[in-house]
Design brief:
Oligomer: single chain
Distance between the termini: 61 Å
Number of helices: 1
Number of strands: 0
Radius of gyration: 17 Å
Length: 39
């Protein structure tokens, strides 16, 4: 039972970090697009 809970906790943390990384990348792309010089 403890193993299952530990596994679920690890999976949750990994998911959380993957989501944060993805949203940070999307935000950086948006920022780059918004601040790009237009000719």
């Amino acid at each position: 039972m403890k193993k299952l809970i530990a596994l679920a906790a690890v999976a949750g943390v990994v998911l959380f970090f993957v989501r944060r990384q993805r949203s940070a990348k999307a935000e950086a792309d948006l920022w780059r697009e918004a601040t790009a010089p237009t000719d």
